[in-house]
Each structure stands twice: as C-alpha cells, then as structure tokens.
Amino acid sequence: MKIALYGYGKMGKTIERLAKERGHEVVLRINSENAASITTNELKAADVAIEFSRPELAETHIKKCIEAQLPVIVGTTGWYDKYNSLKKACLENDSAFLAATNFSVGVNLFFALNKQLAKLMQPHSDYKVEVEEIHHTEKLDAPSGTAITIAEGILENYSNLTNWKLDEASDSELKIAAVRTPNVPGTHEVRYQSAIDEIAIKHTAHNRDGFALGAIIAAEFIINKHGVFTMNDVLKI
Ligand SMILES: NC(=O)C1=CN([C@@H]2O[C@H](COP(=O)(O)OP(=O)(O)OC[C@H]3O[C@@H](n4cnc5c(N)ncnc54)[C@H](OP(=O)(O)O)[C@@H]3O)[C@@H](O)[C@H]2O)C=CC1
Ligand SMILES: O=C(O)C1=N[C@H](C(=O)O)C[C@H](O)C1
User: Fold this and answer.
1) Which residues are annotated as a binding site for (S)-2,3,4,5-tetrahydrodipicolinate?
2) What is the distance, to the nearest Å, from the Cα of residue 131 to the centroid of all Cα atoms in its chain?
3) CATH 3.40.50.720 location in the chain
C-alpha cells in the first residue's frame, strides 16, 4: 500500500516506521513546509492518505483527499464540528473517509467497556461520575477527542446527566478534567465515586505505537471502499 502522510510529526513518523514493518511504502510526507504546493496528481500517486496534523488544518486536508478521490484516515482531533459537512462531501464525491478520536485497539475496547459500565451504573444515582484525561504539554486541544468520545458514551447510556463540561461542571453535568504533563502519550480514566466506594476504569498508552498501528490497520481496511466508516467497522466491535 502506498501512503501519503498529511502531518509528519510525532504520529506521522511513528506511522512511517510501523507501516514499513508491515510492508507498506510512504510516498508523500506533507508538513508545514510543502503543504501549500501539494498537487492532486501527487496525492493520486498514493493508495491512501493518513492525516495527523493540527485541528485547524484537518478540514482542508480531508477536502483535498475527497476531491482527489483518495481514501483518507483522519487522526487529528478538535475539528469535529465539520464532520457532517465532510461526510456529505465524501458521499457526493464517491470517495472514502474514516475518522477516529483514538485509533488504538485498546482504547476502542475501552469505549465499549465504558458504555457497558454506564448502563450498569444508570440506576445508581448515589455515584458521581467524572472523566479525566492526561496528555503531553504540546497538545493543542482540550479536552482530548478520546475524552469527548468517552463522555458521549456515558451520556448515551446514563441519563442522569445532560451534557459534558470541561473542568467546572454542575451536578447535572459530566465533568471532564484535562491535565497536561510533559511526555504523557495519553491516559484516560472514568471514575464513579460514592461515599462508600469508587469504581474506575483506566486506559494508559505507554507510547504512540497503538495509535499508529490502528491507523495503518484502518488504512488497509479502507482501500477500494467507498463511504464513511468508523473504527467499529474496522474492528467489528
Ligand atoms: N486519533 C488518534 O488516535 C490520535 C490523534 N492524535 C492527534 O493527531 C494530531 C497530530 O498529533 P502529533 O503527530 O502528536 O502532532 P505533531 O505536532 O507532532 O505533528 C503535527 C504535524 O503537522 C504538521 N503540519 C503543520 N502544518 C501543516 C500543514 N499546513 N500541512 C500539513 N501538515 C502540517 C507539522 O509540520 P511541521 O513540523 O512542519 O510544523 C507536524 O509535522 C493531533 O491533533 C493529535 O491530537 C494524536 C495521537 C493519536
Ligand atoms: O494529542 C495527542 O497526543 C492525542 N490525541 C488524541 C485525543 O485527543 O484523544 C488521542 C490520544 O489520546 C493522543
């Protein structure tokens, strides 16, 4: 598989290393220096694009791939207000795209576990639930995309709360705490606390390999497909 990398930072470089180990080739590396000059023909030399750049750039990158009918895997977080319009554009152009707030297989299992736990906790309103995410200090968005997906999973299954809120939350809101600590790849925890006890589930990424491998597996999945997909389609969760 020939890969175009939109974004060649921490994630782009990790993806290149793991993609080579799986027999794939990176044919295009796009960063701030060459992004403006990339042509549709250059994009079309790849079988798939993998996008891990910056929140404010994701929409433009996805649009370029859709217009070139190049399937695109999107890992960048913090742009999801554009998701529905990009989904429409993808379907109109008969292209393919898959975005995930977190590509790690472990986190996608954690998402399923989180929903199950929220269902179990629904009748037990004496517990107070909160989400905490910890990331490295270069992270541009807060809360993390993963924490938002976790919060949505709780709110869908636990009707005691109305919406999520970053840091300060009222009794009817789900608090997400965002902590920034140097060099942390990504830690997410859900805690239900009462005066009597605490139930917690936690995912700790030890490095970025899980995110990168999941994105490559998603790229292998999307080749020759048309439409909009999620990691649930890839992992059959
Ligand atoms: N969904 C998931 O599983 C995961 C998502 N992420 C998300 O992925 C994104 C990237 O993370 P990470 O790799 O750690 O970030 P980095 O800051 O390490 O890398 C960002 C890259 O984007 C590049 N860039 C800047 N401007 C442009 C441009 N105009 N066109 C193309 N590329 C450009 C930068 O290039 P330059 O160096 O030239 O400035 C850099 O190579 C973030 O949004 C993060 O939240 C991260 C991990 C997992
Ligand atoms: O910026 C990061 O690094 C990460 N971002 C993603 C997110 O916002 O959830 C995924 C992962 O936690 C790492």
Assistant:
1) 136, 145-146
2) 17
3) 2-103+209-235
